[in-house]
Amino acid sequence: MKMEIQNKEAVLNEYGLKADTVILKPFGTGHINSTFLVSIKSTSQQFILQSININVFKKPDIIAQNVKLVGDYLAEHYPDYLFIGSIPTLSGKEMALVEGVYWRLTQFVDNSISFDTLSDPNQAYEAALQFGRLNKLLSNFDASQLKETIPGFHDLGLRYQQFTDALASAPDDLKKHAEKEINTALHYRFILDYFDSFKDSSEFPDRAMHHDTKISNMLFDRDSLKGICVIDLDTLMAGKFISDLGDMMRTYLCAFSENEPDISKITIRIEYFEAIVKGYLHEMGSILSPVERELILFSGKYLIYMQAIRFLSDYLNGSIYYPISYPEQNLDRTKNQFKLLSELFDNEKILVDIVNKCLNEHDLDA
After folding, report:
1. Is 160 helix (H, G, I), strand (E, B) or coil?
2. Smallest Cα–Cα separation from 261: which of 211, 334, 206?
3. Is the torsion defined by CA of 229, 234, 240, 242 positive or negative?
4. 36 lies in the same domain as 158
């Protein structure tokens, strides 16, 4: 499915396209869904055709419903905003279902480029600006309309319970190998307790969140490298603001990904942190409540800790969820994320000063 489309003619027919009039090529570097660039031979028109991985997204219809609800809201209230929703099938459906496989067609954004890694703080700024803009435009949208596309995706309480369950049933040899990381996970339990003290506050509302703000989910203008729009809306659902801001911190701050086994390389880039906060506050500074403003740095701690215990839980479960290329990889990923988390704590004074400076600058400009 990664390199070719089964029942290609039937899939294209759903959208009024003919196999002999288009060129299909695999597109992008995503690992979840299969993605193809559709080029119409007789014109310059191009589209993105993508299948939905039902092993990850059990109910693709929910994705389609959420995207349509948000797309309709933005079209009504902010018609100039570029929102990459689904192009309906000939029968008016948001997705095509062909022999058990869900497909969606979206527009291709001309002269756009995406990145798998960041090489400049300006990229972090532009991405934070665009994700923040989507959050801002949806700040008055009733997020309770949205259903969970992945239940409990960013629920740290659930992830901690999964960790303790895995710990209770793990073989002794795995627990021995992971003893230090298990103790670290237990030590940082206070992050969950701190979150729980705020989660029901009226000043910590559920908002419509993207939930997957890695840099590859941003489109940049190929010439100016300014942000154009966000893409990949599979996890668009209700959540706390920390989901989007925290995931940017988790994935932008270090020059190396979670797959880097040499934890001496895992350090944070202070200038990228400032770029993220500045970009996000440019859009969301006037929207965030006093409680949310207090939780800006915490958002990074929350997301990094959650990902660390997810890797650790999978390791203790025998590495059944995350693909691995060697037996200890999930344990190495756990060490990687705990080192990243320690970097936030070790640099806390510097980071807090940056947050306060950015908040003050935004308030002065407002």
Report:
1. helix
2. 334
3. negative
4. no
How many CA atoms within 13 Å lie on the side-chain side of 165? 9
Residues 95 and 188 in one domain: no
Beta strand 101-107 pairing with 96-98:
antiparallel
Two tokens at 72? 């309709």
Structural domain of 49? 8-108
Rounded (10°) CA dihedral 270, 273, 275, 281: -140
Which residue in this structure is represented by tokens 């859009």? 283
Do the domain assignments include residue 226? yes
CATH number for the domain spanning 187: value is 3.90.1200.10
Around 271, how many Cα atoms within 13 Å sit in the side-chain half-sphere? 7
Residues near 155 by beta carbon (within 8 Å), at least 6 away in sequence: none
Residue type, 150: I
Report how far residue 58's alpha carbon sits from residue 259's, in angstroms, rounded to the nearest whole number.
26
Identity at 46, one-letter amino acid code? Q
- Per residue in 103-160, pLDDT (tens digit) is 999 999 999 999 999 999 999 999 999 999 999 999 999 999 999 999 999 999 999 9
Structure confidence by residue, pLDDT tens digits, 233-289: 999 999 999 999 999 999 999 999 999 999 999 999 999 999 999 999 999 999 999
Could you tell me if 316 and 335 are in contact, meaning their C-beta atoms sit under 8 angstroms apart?
Answer: no
